[in-house]
UniProtKB/TrEMBL annotation:
InterPro entries reported in the protein's UniProt record: Glutathione-S-Trfase_C-like, Glutathione-S-Trfase_C_sf, Glutathione_S-Trfase, Glutathione_S-Trfase_N, Thioredoxin-like_sf
Organism taxonomic ancestry: Bacteria, Pseudomonadati, Pseudomonadota, Betaproteobacteria, Burkholderiales
GO molecular function, one term: glutathione transferase activity
GST N-terminal domain boundaries: 1-78
Name of the protein: Glutathione S-transferase N-terminal domain-containing protein
Record-linked Gene3D superfamilies: 1.20.1050.10, Glutaredoxin
Length: 204
């Protein structure tokens, strides 16, 4: 398999962490989707990463779709419950963590990819409110549990860890640790895992 992505994309990182946890072999192909000569749309018509190229030349895109597929490839380190309420709860954790990423990447694009005269502070403020609300909800839901779903590490923790890592990368001024102690405790635990260490984004 080949994974097309970037070193700073948190969605790509989520897939890379899952592949590391599942001990899956793949080739990592760097791609700048903002470059004029990007070829990403050959494999993903939406022009986004991550994109997974499979051995039969088929492709999968969207991190949620990719990690769902990857978890079926090996029984090693099952990350998503197969059925029932725990599965739905895991996907909800992933959804709220991805919501943080969606808001954070929107702010970054607004402030760095749009012309200054076209930027909307009202839009940016709206995205910050989403981030704050999601962090508070996740912190409360986590409580004193070891991991998002209780005692076992899973996809929920991967998604949350990647979201928190992206906030550290792009918005260190948020200082979320001072407000969300439960998430801080989880993050400290996740950052010791080899899968997170190996996929840490380069510092600006």
């Amino acid at each position: 398999m080949k994974l097309i992505g970037s070193l700073t994309s948190p969605y790509v990182r989520k897939v890379r962490v899952v592949m590391a946890e599942k001990k899956l072999d793949y080739e990592f192909i760097l791609e700048d989707v903002w470059a004029e000569d990007t070829k990403i749309q050959i494999h993903n018509p939406l022009g986004k990463v991550p994109c997974l190229l499979m051995d039969d030349n088929g492709s999968l895109f969207d991190s949620r779709v990719i990690v769902e597929y990857l978890d079926t490839l090996s029984p090693v380190g099952r990350l998503i419950p197969q059925t029932g309420r725990d599965r739905a709860a895991t996907k909800c954790w992933e959804a709220i963590a991805d919501g943080v990423l969606d808001a954070a990447t929107s702010i970054y694009i607004e402030n760095n990819r749009r012309a200054p005269e076209s930027r909307s502070q009202q839009w940016v403020d709206r995205q910050h409110k989403k981030i704050a609300g999601a962090l508070e909800s996740m912190d409360n839901s986590l409580g004193d549990q070891a991991f998002c779903m209780g005692i076992n590490f899973g996809l929920a923790d991967v998604a949350v860890g990647c979201a928190l890592g992206y906030l550290d990368l792009r918005f260190p001024e948020l200082n979320w640790r001072s407000q969300y102690g439960n998430l801080q405790r989880l993050d400290e635990k996740l950052q010791t895992r080899p899968s997170f260490v190996a996929t840490a984004p380069p510092k600006p």
